[in-house]
Amino acid sequence: MIGDIKIVVMSKMKHESRQKEVPAFRAFYERLGYKVLELKETELFEGMGDTIHHFGKNLLFGGYGHRSDKSAYKELSSKLDVNIVPLELIDERFYHLDTCFLPIDDETVLLYPKAFTERDLAILKEKYICN
């Protein structure tokens, strides 16, 4: 939500079987009065599985690599005017960010380190979480 406006960004699913879900979700959110946004410059973006809101810091963490493109976060940041920390997922068992990453409070996240690059772990440790 931005102000009083309810916003949803539609997914662009990788697998054909999941692509069939998107029109149903669009209709659902339209009935509820949401403003529906589309990512035009991005091929793959699986939405909530790869995008996690950190309420205390008012930012989004965005997983990419297996089912979402990194480019989705630049476009999403622009459309929503929000800071996004892109995190590359390198272990195919963790194909969505929500399978290996969970903010606990303003200074702590629960994560599986081997799902991420050393570079991203260093960024998280330096800028966003404490030991």
UniProtKB/TrEMBL annotation:
Top EC class for this record: hydrolase
The organism's place on the tree of life at top rank: Bacteria
SUPFAM superfamilies linked: Pentein (SSF55909)
UniProt cross-references to Pfam families, sorted A to Z: ADI
Enzyme Commission number(s) from the entry: 3.5.3.6
PANTHER family in the record: ARGININE DEIMINASE (PTHR47271)
Originating species: Candidatus Megaera venefica
Reaction catalysis annotation: L-arginine + H2O = L-citrulline + NH4(+)
Record pathway: Amino-acid degradation; L-arginine degradation via ADI pathway; carbamoyl phosphate from L-arginine: step 1/2
Name the UniProt record assigns to this protein: arginine deiminase
